[in-house]
Specification:
Blueprint (H helix, E strand, L loop, with lengths): L8 H42 L3 H14 L4 H14 L2 H12 L6 H17 L3 H21 L4 H12 L5 H12 L9 H17 L4 H15 L3 H15 L8 H20 L4 H22 L5 H15 L3 H5 L4 H22 L2 H17 L4 H14 L2 H14 L4 H19 L1
Helix pairs in contact: 1-2, 2-3, 3-4, 3-5, 4-5, 5-6, 5-7, 6-7, 7-8, 7-9, 8-9, 9-10, 10-11, 11-13, 12-13, 13-14, 13-16, 14-16, 16-17, 16-18, 17-18, 18-19, 18-20, 19-20
């Protein structure tokens, strides 16, 4: 006789409890597996980002967010990538999602501040740019309210003030903000880049020692792992530095800058897209190095000078007017003056009058932009005198003498120029 299976109240309760426990165990297991997969994909994304494998980062982040659409680490890194790509509206949307959640808002507020700095930097209308700067400062200040020791927020505030221009009060405020950065705690790589680049810009505004500017921009470029915009800033800083170096002494410095020039050419060959952004800074660097080495003279430097000047000819021989049309008036006259000086060195080295004629032509172009510039009038007077155009040289000499009354350094130089003219008259 078969036994009948009978369920008592107790047995049904026990089965129900076991089922509930099984369901809870499955849910907990799924939650644990889900968290593992999310963290796995986030860790992969961070690894790819740090190793500059940007094409793999977004795939890992989207995989993480498919498991957990609210994961803060994934949202923050994805917003950072969208910012880097220039998709500022998309990045703002992601940061806003984080701010509207229950998570810590500090990093998202800093991210929004950076977005507004980028918008200000790209804005051509002054009023709109200042509005973006004000919003950037507001978000950085909120981040500081959340975390008073946030170095990233302090760096953001400093760089926002630098965008306001060379105004005494804002430059001082930027300097103070940079001074509050706490280097005793970890700082993310991007903020270190912003710090060193920002301090370099601050020094540029304050006309600081060029070698100190170079140190800051080199540090920023080192951390950036190849940022082209930072490389452009670095090259311009090195051009300023080159003009202050006595090239008859530190051969290692000359080699350092010549290696930079060679490195840029190699970079162009492997990545032609960077040519336009680096073209003008490189012209500045080549002219500065050639001028500095030429000023110190010395037969041992002539090959180096000639190589740099020949390299320079690739840039300006056929397209100078196109190059200078994109520059501010001050940068334009400075660049043309440097190029003219370099051409004169080529004329001396090659004993070629054509280069001197070109130098005179370009100086006259520069003077049509800035007619009262001391250096332009002075250099044109010298070249015309060397060519034998005494009457025309005297006109520009007088203009240089008038302009020299403004500063002590140029008034001393004009005395030397006067002595040179008298010496030439005796020949």
């Amino acid at each position: 006789m078969k036994k009948q299976l009978r369920f008592t109240t107790i047995s049904i309760t026990e089965i129900s409890s076991a089922g509930v426990l099984l369901i809870i165990s499955i849910i907990l297991l799924w939650s644990s597996v889900s968290k593992w997969f999310v963290q796995h994909h986030v860790n992969n994304a961070i690894h790819y980002y740090d190793s500059n494998q940007r094409e793999k980062v977004e795939g890992s982040l989207h995989s993480a967010l498919s498991w957990d659409s609210t994961n803060i680490s994934a949202l923050l890194l994805l917003a950072k990538i969208e910012t880097d790509k220039g998709n500022l509206d998309k990045a703002e949307e992601l940061y806003t999602r984080i701010i509207n959640s229950e998570a810590d808002k500090t990093n998202a507020l800093i991210g929004l501040g950076i977005i507004y700095i980028k918008r200000a930097d790209n804005e051509s209308t002054t009023a709109t740019a200042l509005d973006h700067i004000a919003k950037a400062q507001k978000h950085f200040q909120k981040a500081l309210s959340n975390s008073s020791s946030s170095s990233e927020a302090q760096i953001g505030i400093a760089n926002a003030h630098l965008l306001e221009g060379n105004i005494k009060e804002t430059v001082q405020t930027a300097r103070d903000a940079f001074g509050k950065v706490d280097f005793s705690r970890p700082i993310i790589k991007e903020s270190l880049i912003d710090y060193y680049a920002g301090v370099g810009k601050l020094m540029l505004l304050e006309a600081a020692a060029p070698d100190e500017m170079v140190k800051r921009f080199r540090s920023a470029y080192q951390y950036s792992q190849g940022s082209i915009s930072l490389l452009a800033n670095l090259i311009n800083a090195e051009a300023e530095w080159a003009m202050t170096i006595p090239f008859n002494k530190p051969v290692s410095v000359e080699a350092d800058l010549n290696n930079r020039i060679s490195g840029i050419i190699t970079l162009w060959q492997s990545n032609p897209e960077v040519y336009k952004e680096l073209e003008i800074p490189t012209v500045n660097l080549i002219t500065s190095v050639a001028t500095a080495m030429g000023t110190s003279a010395g037969a041992t430097r002539r090959d180096s000078i000639e190589n740099n000047l020949d390299l320079l000819s690739r840039f300006f021989d056929s397209k100078l007017e196109q190059i200078i049309s994109d520059l501010s008036k001050e940068r334009r006259t400075s660049l043309i003056n440097n190029i003219a000086i370099s051409m004169e060195y080529r004329a001396l080295l090659k004993k070629d009058q054509l280069h001197r004629d070109n130098a005179i032509k370009y100086l006259k172009i520069a003077l049509s932009i800035e007619p009262d510039d001391y250096a332009l009038n002075r250099n044109l007077a010298v070249l015309l005198r060397k060519k034998g155009n005494i009457k025309e040289a005297t006109i520009f000499y007088k203009k240089a003498a008038e302009a020299s009354k403004n500063t002590k350094s140029t008034s001393i130089d004009i005395e030397k120029l006067n002595a040179y003219f008298k010496q030439e008259d005796k020949k």
